[in-house]
Amino acid sequence: MRQFAVFFLISSFFLASIATVAQTVVIEKSNIVEQYKGKPYYIHFVKKSETLYSLSKAYEVSIDDIKAANPAINETNLQEGITLKIPKKEPEKNDSPNQKISVQTNQDQKVESKTYLIHKVKKQETLYGIAKSYNVSQEEIIEANPGFQGLKTGMDLKVPKGNTGVVSVSVPASPDVPKPAEATHSKEGTTSYTVAQGETFYSISKKFNTTQEDLVRLNPKLKDGLKTGDVIEVPSSGTVETTTKETPRDEHPRIPKDCEDTYYNKEKTYKIALLMPLALEAADTTVFSDSRSDTRDADSYRSYEFFQFYCGAMIALRDLEAEGVKIKFYVYDAEDERDNGKIEKVLKRSEMADMDLIIGPFYAKSFELASDFAEKNDIPIVNPLSRRDKILDENRFVFKVQPPADAVATKLVSLLGEKEYSDAKSIVVVKYDKKENGELVSSFISALQGNSTLASKLKVVDYATEKYAGVAKNLSASGKNLVFFFSTNERIFPAFVSQLAAAAKSKDITLFGMPNIERQQINMENLETLSYHKVNVNFVDYSNPQTLSFVKEFREQYKTEPQIEKYAFLGYDITYFFSEALCTYGKDFLKCIPYFDKPTGFQNKFRFQQDAKNDGFFNADVRVIYLNNYEWKSR
Question: How many C-beta atoms surround the C-beta of residue 550 within 10 A?
Fold first, then answer.
């Protein structure tokens, strides 16, 4: 008996076949970093054909370092799917991140004519989120912290505040080996605990088998942040680990106790609604002809615009069914760009208030109405496509799949700390139109300007007025040039690539660009010459056997190729990930989603974070891929 039901009726769809795009990934570097014995490690999920040698090269560490961190591994035959801890190399910096920060605490004195709060950076916090919580700009924070080179968990960040007196601390330089944490018995039911250097809410909550919310309840002062040396109250029933046991990371990560209670409940049937624009009224009049004179492509019909998303979701449901997951899947033709009549009608249906999850809608106006409905009924809701951060404001039930601009900027800046790029002589940022990636350009430039080393190399070119000449005059003839071009305008990008490739014959140039250039008439040889890098959150590894299996099933079921730009892989990844989250944690999975690290989807990685308690969750995972020997590889 089938264990999921789809409440949906639609005519059979047969689409035109599209050619497969070949991509190859050698090593995909993990974005998951965990602390063990005070040291950071990448958590890497081994894929087919990976070896210790290839991993050591990808992560720039020795094979012995990997073996030392994973004493139980079979070094001659790495098994696909096992998890390895790989030491994370700290980027070389002129200034120590643990240098002493001295800020006056006298109410009558000010620092640089301003007053500041000291914010202890917590795990997974972003500059955007911190700035928003203190109602200041990212630029103001960067200006207040000379030598700023990016956020690190546990660091103290000066945040400007109003002229009401300085509230701050003096942080001593951190020794090579942090002092052991201290715990002493306090009032009944709790223990007094001294916060050690580098500890976070997350690490302490794991140590004492409690939650971050309970820590704040026991210690109201923690609403202003966690500081090294703070004496706080923790539940005495928890386990105090003054030394971290190095235990292998198993299939399921160690998570707070309240996120383990409902682990993998396959007995419950969950209800999921997919709200999307299917234009079924137009599908009734869609006619396909064998006549060669009928040249209209099937994709030109409105009914097909997002249909591959639906197809991917259906395949995900079949895979979930095979695992014993029970899903009732409701699909609604719920959107029309011209008015809100469809979405309003769907939201009034009696079953909608009982949903455990809503996926979609896709259009902005429809999603606004649906997200309000979801908040009122405590239903998590997923936005697959929007890049607007505003949809997260004051609605903790919203999940935004597309990463925000500051997450992309953070990823790009972090790349510049890697060995391959750290010796660059010139960093040229090319902007063209404020309407195109304006927020990303601003965030990226601000982050570079906040780093004294990178700021000295930075050159900003307004391509609209300076043209290519503005770029050419800022290229170094004797050193490495990193050129960031934040436009995909078809009128200028192909010509720009040609000119830059010509210059690369006598200069060392690497070009960084944006996604979605595939349809442009660009000479691939020029991109190869420039070692072209691009931001890409939608990378599909067609060498992966599981991907090939999905493609084969998609072809058999729907008589066409699954396409990235038609959202086939996205439909699968979202449906599978959130169904697993429901099955793992139940409907109230919001508090546990930051700890949920299910294997990567075919196209997307999901690493959800939250900037403020009352805001929604955004996907913080960003990948950069680059061209090498005419193959796309992932960093």
Answer: 21
User: How far apart, in Å, are the Cα atoms of 116 and each of 104, 122, 143, 162, 342?
Assistant: 9, 18, 12, 8, 50
Counting every residue, how long is the chain? 635
- pTM, two decimals, is 0.58
The b/e string for 361-398 (b: 16+ C-beta within 10 A; e otherwise) is bbbeebbebbbebbbeeebbbbbbbbbebebbeeebbb
Q: Name residue, tokens 């955007």.
A: 128
Could you give the angle at which helices 568-585 and 545-558 cross, rounded to 10 degrees? 110
The whole-angstrom separation of Cα 202 and Cα 183 is: 17
**Beta carbons of 495 and 485 less than 8 angstroms apart:** no
- Closest by CA position to 357, among listed 570, 572, 575, 616: 575
Rounded Cα distance between 306 and 234, Å, is 50
Taking Cα atoms as reference points, which of 140, 180, 181 lies closest to residue 159?
140
Write the pLDDT tens digit of every residue in 189-227. Answer: 677 888 775 566 655 765 677 766 677 778 877 655 666
Six token digits for residue 272: 């999921």
Give the SS3 label for residue 458.
Answer: strand
Angle 362-368-371 (CA atoms, 0-180°, nearest 5)? 90
CB 334 within 8 A of CB 356: no
β-sheet bridge partners, residue 483: 428, 511
Q: What b-and-e string marks burial along 178-210, b requiring 16 or more CB atoms within 10 Å of the CB?
A: eeebebeeeeeebbebbbbbbbbbbbbbbbbeb
User: Which DSSP string do the residues of 479-545 spell out, in sequence order?
Assistant: SEEEEEE----TTTHHHHHHHHHHHTTTSEEEEEE-S--TTS---HHHHHHTT-EEE-S----TTSH
Alpha-carbon distance of 406 to 413, in angstroms, equals: 10
Output the pLDDT for position 354. Answer: 95
> What pLDDT score does 251 carry?
36
Token readout for 71 is 């004493």
C-alpha radius of gyration, the chain, whole number: 26
pLDDT along the chain (635 residues), means of 10: 44 31 52 67 76 82 83 68 77 38 30 63 68 72 72 80 34 34 54 70 66 73 67 66 33 54 67 90 56 54 82 93 88 83 93 95 93 96 91 94 86 84 92 79 84 88 92 94 89 90 94 76 87 85 84 91 91 93 84 75 85 88 85 79
**Pairwise CA distance, residues 218 & 213, whole Å:** 9
Distance of CA 172 to the CA centre of its chain: 33
CB 463 within 8 A of CB 451: no
* 107 burial via Cβ count (<10 Å: 0-12, 13-18, 19+): exposed
The number of angstroms, rounded, from the C-alpha of 61 to the middle of its chain's C-alpha atoms is 25
Beta strands 426-431 and 458-462: pairing type?
parallel
- 271 within 8 A of 328, measured Cβ to Cβ: yes
If phi > 0 it is left, if psi is from -120 to 50 it is alpha, else beta; for residue 435 that is: alpha
Kindly state the tokens that stand for 107. 């109410």
